[in-house]
């Protein structure tokens, strides 16, 4: 049975970041910075509440009548209790023989064009551990993009304004960055397992390393760009954030309304229509939060029973990264034009170049992952290199200016003259050589 290391990592990051946020908010209160104190507490406690709610929802504790567990979740101790339960199940699994087992069928990755189906016995303990891993993975994504990402942006913004990086703040920012990168990594793994649920997927260490480097460069550069822009053009920060957020929030709903599909009713049997709507809104809210800072790796599709688009769309990936690169470059240009005296000792052109190169490095690691390290790359209908090449050809075709009709008419007018000149020149050459010229009628 696989060791539940992902559960332990999720718990450590959750507890460490929450404790650091509480300590830092206390430091802000002692310094008299009440606004920074309340914002730090908000970005720390709101995701905590959402994490407790997600764990209760995934484990269906409301319908199972577990009042003690619900009370511990209300006291924000849910992840700690869940982790203790996970390790209790793990260390007790081999000692007691399980009376019931279930058989699951998975397909292996194709070899030489042939995929073999294998059967595997799954006991109750392993099934419970799988549910706990899935729940903690989703909780890590929520914690990362609804808590750690805004928190990291806020603390870096405070550092820029105060022109000071304290030890407590730097430790907190490192923890937040690790939490975001880990959440993005779990999001990638979840997307792979959901899309290829029929296959036995094993992720190699090289794939983990590529995802970690890809997400680290992407998120660090994105947060830095947002902070630099907001430090010089505060009045335009809110419109930029709202356009990004609500654009991704309403995009799945627009596709759903265009498809004219019936309202999804199979999410949870115990939920009413209002409850289902709230769950779908929270899902698209999380989807928008992820895409604010990085590529979500999974596309929400509300008219699908699994709520996930399982097709691999290279066009959407290409358009996202192209538009995000253009946006980052534009925000950096605005910062460079309107930068204030607090950046007097900063080499602005070098910083802009470093951030753009950093984002390109993220794209490079992403390409390496999908081309060489993706565990299911054999199932792709086309590789990412072929997909990107076709995307660029399509964009070049769109951007290519159409031929002017005036120039076309001129070419048509000139062509008979050129033909007559060519015929006369050929007659001259033939007469010089002593070859009699034959007309078209004589040839006929």
Structural account:
By secondary structure, this protein is mainly alpha-helical. The protein has helices spanning 5-31, 34-59, 67-74, 78-92, 124-162, 167-195, 205-232, 234-259, 273-293, 314-338, 348-373, 384-399, 405-433, 440-443; strands at 101-107, 117-123, 299-300, 308-309. Helices cover 72% and strands 4% of the residues. A two-stranded antiparallel ribbon has the order 1-2. It has a two-stranded antiparallel ribbon with strand order 3-4. Strand 3 and strand 4 (308-309) form a beta hairpin. Helix 1 runs antiparallel to helix 4 (78-92).
Widest beta sheet: strand line-up: 1-2
Q: What is the tally of helical segments?
A: 14
Strand percent estimate: under 5%
Q: What's the total number of strands?
A: 4
The end-to-end distance, rounded to whole angstroms, is 88 Å
Mean pLDDT: 79
